[in-house]
Structures are given as structure tokens and as C-alpha cells.
């Protein structure tokens, strides 16, 4: 393929020249619009796992994976972490701008009004088996929301996106805390109108009739920071699931439920839980090198969890902030976690190992997150749920962007490599009918 002008590239296919337009993003990212390719040449492109495919235009989040830059709506995450609250970032992602004072108050009031779960839904929690993973419970419960609030469809986008957004962001937090309380056999704690978003969540998780929970502003600040850092990450696996499923005009709740299912995988959001499980194994064994060797061995499915990223080929900027805050928080609270020492040792060994250096494998957002969640008292099986709570505004923003554009239903093509027409004579004839 040769570049003929800044405006298009020319592709030669079987002696025929096809001009394909070049598109340039606001940060200078270049792409080739291949929309006309099949019509003009009969060819499709092949890109399994979308290693080299931009699936859409988006103005929500920018990542420079080489330089380690992450911005939401143009604002660097470092600045958002320093200056904003999670609910403001949620508003920013969904609406494109940080809220002014009036919008902030209105959004906060909507979160409060929508924080209660329909009482009939509360009883659903009684029927999940004890020990069920909270991510499975959460995706089921969110899907069920459409039965209780059936008017959430595409119409709600133009009429009431604030309502649907506030309900989801607020109610999912309540559901998550209820799922946890049920899993430990304690009565659920209802949301309170006088607490901020993160303080409310911690209170619903840890308050009990026999041991009132003391809300520590520092714990609230840390949770706020973690939620902001997880709030969006452009076209990752779960967001792509949301955009794909939403493109069939499925209701918002079913769409988000699909995003949660995608997030639960250990290569995606499930990695934060998998990191802690791995660090515990390394701590027990005491031999960091052995685990690095296992991760490098192509015949061994083991991978160094919390390391590597499809987009970042340098230190994940979220991991850099979380690592710094993790050290500082543990020191301030005199909370000693031996897994932090193991994590430091693993990171140092990996960053000095040619295998990891050559492949640009650095700690990602999940590497230190679990240690902070442990310090906040969050149980391991809730880690991925925490990720889901934080990612909700991102999913909703992408759904809104996708529905608001002229997106057609997502429907990739394939290169068929199965059998060509097969002769069935003799196989399909003279057979007894089956009962079922
Ligand atoms: N441990 C050992 N080797 C690795 C790792 C790892 N964690 N990550 C990548 N590699 C190797 C991989 O085997 C491949 O080697 P080779 O070129 O010799 O075949 C090379 O590095 C490139 O990796 P890849 O699998 O082609 O990269 P990918 O973009 O398909 O995968 C990833 C990205 C995040 C799934 C992968 O790095 C991984 O499995 N990491 C561990 C799981 C994890 O931490 N996931 C959280 C990701 S960040 C948060 C999120 O997305 O939710």
C-alpha cells in the first residue's frame, strides 16, 4: 500500500487501484477508512482480536500507549484525581464537560433519589447460592432491572439519559453492597442521603447493627481515586461488548450486564483478583524467579497477572498513581501487607528481565489495586465488582455516543475456512426418525 496524498492511500488489488480515504484524529492518530473496500474489490480485511482496527470514532477518552498518557474528555487523569470527585468524572464522561455547580447538585440529588433498590428485587439476593461470585450476581441483577424499569429504551436517551445514568450508577453500588452482605449472612444496609457516593458505598459494605462503621475520609479519598482511574479506558473488551450489543438496540441494562460479563474475565477486570491470588502463591513459595520463569515458558499457560497491556507499551499511568498512593496509604494507616513487599519484588525482577523488557511488559492498573482494596477491607471476590462500579460511567458514555451517532448494527465478516460443499448421499437417507 503506498501513500499517494495526505487525503487517501491507494491500494492495488489484482491490477486495480482503489483510493481509500485517510482519516486523522484530533491527536494526530491516522487511519485508513476501508468502508468501500469490499464493494470496490470484493476483498475484506482480516484482523482477529482487533489488534489493528479502530472500530469507531470517539471523543471520550484518549490514550497514548507509547507515552503513557490517559485523558478523559481532554483532561489528564492526574489532574482529575487531584481535583475532582468520582461523580463529577462520571458526569464529565457522560456529558462531555465537568458539571457546573447547579448540574453537580442536581446530579448528586438524582444519585440520592435513585440509590434505593426496588424492594422486590432485594429478595432476589436470597436465592443465589452462598458463595456465588458477586460478578455473576451483579450481571444477573442488572439484566433484571429492565423488568422493573421497562421504559429504558432508546427513547430514554433523548428524554432521560440523566435518569438512566443516575439510576444505574447509584443502584449498582447498592446492589454490590447487598450482594456482599448476603454473601456473609449479614442484614443489608440501606443507602444514606447524607453521605457522598464513595462514603455511602463503604458504609453499606461495612456498617452493622452490632459494630457501627467509622467512615475515614482518607479511605473515601482512596476509593474516589481508584474509581476515577478505572472510569473509562476507550475501546477495551467490555466497552467493545457494550458498543456491540448496544448496536442491536438492546436496552441499556441488558447492554451494561453484557459489559459486566466481559469485565469478569481474568485477562480483563478479573485480573485484580488474580493478581492477589498470584502474589499469595509467590509469597507462600518464596521463589519469585520460579514464577517469572513460568510466565516466560510458552508451554505454561501461567502469565504474570497485572503485567502487560494491549495499548500501553510503557508504564500504565494509572498503575503509577496507584502504586504511589498504595505505599503512602499503607504507611499513613500503619497497615502492613506482606503482599506489597512481594509485589515490589516481582515488579523489580520483571522490569530487569530481558523477556519483559523486550516485550514492553509493565505493571498495569490491576497490579497494585488489589493491595489497596485489601487495605480498605474489601474482600477479594469483590475486587472485580469494584472495577465494574467504577467503569459504569465509561460504558454509559460509550453507549450514549454510539446510539447518538449513525452506527449500524455491529456485524463483522469472516474468512470461511470450513468444508466446501459436501456430498450427503448415503449419510442422510434411510434413517429412523428420532423421538426428540
Ligand atoms: N506474562 C507473561 N507474558 C506476557 C504477559 C504476561 N502478563 N503479557 C503479555 N505477555 C507476552 C505474550 O506471551 C506475548 O509474547 P510473544 O510475543 O512471545 O508471543 C507478548 O507478551 C505480547 O502479548 P500479547 O498476549 O500478544 O498481548 P495482548 O495485547 O494480546 O494481551 C493482556 C494483553 C493484558 C491480555 C496480556 O498482557 C495479559 O494477559 N496480561 C495478564 C492479565 C492482566 O493483567 N490483565 C489486565 C489488563 S489491564 C486491565 C484491563 O484490561 O481490564
What can you see in these coordinates?
By secondary structure, the protein is of the alpha+beta class. It has helices at 37-41, 77-83, 86-95, 101-113, 119-122, 134-148, 154-183, 197-206, 217-230, 237-246, 252-263, 271-285, 288-296, 317-332, 338-351, 354-358, 366-376, 383-404, and strands spanning 2-5, 8-13, 16-24, 30-32, 61-64, 69-72, 75-76. The strands form 2 sheets. It has a 4-stranded antiparallel sheet with strand order 1-2-3-4. A 3-stranded antiparallel sheet has the order 5-6-7. The protein is globular. The mean pLDDT is 92. The protein binds carboxymethyl coenzyme *A. Carboxymethyl coenzyme *A binds at residues 236, 267-269, 271, 295, 303-310, 359, 361, 364-366.
Kindly list the characteristics that best describe this protein.
alpha+beta; 436 residues; 7% strand; 7 strands
List the topology elements.
Blueprint lengths: L1 E4 L2 E6 L2 E9 L5 E3 L4 H5 L19 E4 L4 E4 L2 E2 H7 L2 H10 L5 H13 L5 H4 L11 H15 L5 H30 L13 H10 L10 H14 L6 H10 L5 H12 L7 H15 L2 H9 L20 H16 L5 H14 L2 H5 L7 H11 L6 H22 L32
Helix pairs in contact: 2-9, 3-18, 4-7, 6-7, 6-11, 7-8, 7-18, 9-14, 9-17, 9-18, 10-11, 10-18, 11-18, 12-15, 12-17, 14-17
The structure holds carboxymethyl coenzyme *A.
